């Protein structure tokens, strides 16, 4: 059995997978926004779903921008 390679030092590098993740999360937030706008009774549930996804999307996008500069 082989051992896995050691973890790289420092911050992980953002790559195309990070960019794809940001795009998919933005699409998901768009769908959540649509669900929120169409909902009459459960808008609070759409907010509860959208806030954590929005936070993760912001963090990924921030990481992507910082790694490009």
Written description of the protein model:
The chain has about 70 residues and is mostly helical. It has helices at about 15-40, 45-69. Helix 1 packs antiparallel against helix 2. The longest helix is centred in the C-terminal third of the chain and has 26 residues, at about 45-69. The chain is elongated, with a radius of gyration of 17 Å. About 0% of the residues are buried.
Explain the layout of strands and helices:
Layout: H1 16-38, H2 43-68
Helix pairs in contact: 1-2
Question: What features would you highlight for this structure?
Answer:
single chain; 69 residues; mainly alpha; 2 helices; 71% helix
* Outline type: elongated
Radius of gyration: 17 Å
| Approximate strand percentage | under 5%
Number of helices: 2
Give the class from helix and strand content and strand pairing: mainly alpha
Distance between the first and last residues' Cα: 39 Å
Low confidence ranges: none
Question: What is the H/E string?
Answer: HH
> Mean pLDDT across all residues, rounded?
90
Major sheet details: none
Beta strand count:
0
């Amino acid at each position: 059995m082989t051992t896995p390679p050691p973890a790289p030092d420092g911050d992980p590098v953002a790559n195309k997978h990070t960019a794809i993740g940001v795009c998919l999360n933005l699409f998901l937030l768009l769908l959540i926004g649509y669900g929120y706008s169409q909902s009459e009774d459960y808008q609070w549930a759409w907010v509860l779903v959208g806030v954590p996804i929005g936070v993760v999307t912001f963090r990924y996008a921030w990481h992507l921008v910082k790694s490009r500069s």
